[in-house]
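[#protein-structures] MJ: dropping Phage gp6-like head-tail connector protein here for a structure pass
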Amino acid sequence: MAEAGLSASEPIGLDEAKAFLRVAHADEDALIGTLIAAARDYVETQTRRELAADVPAALRQAMRLLIAHWYEHRATASDRAAQIPDGVGALIAPYRELSL
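AK: finished. structure tokens for Phage gp6-like head-tail connector protein:
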């Protein structure tokens, strides 16, 4: 069964994301769910592939880093919020589908 507000097909569940963020309350579950979907969208766009049920550990870690970065900078109006955390590109790079 899908967690509240999340597709059953998300590679990272709400509980996993909250544990990574060290969030124990449910007040921001909707926000975290949105960040999970956004991280999946980002990784899918960068790799040019749809994430299946069995997602490689490196892509899952890239998603966790994105979720944490966006959660930490959710109220920031600076350029820092738009920047991608160090390491995300390196985690995603081996899985990119290249086109000519």
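MJ: nice. The longest helix spans residues 29-47.
AK: one more thing. Residues 1-5 have pLDDT under 50 and may be disordered.
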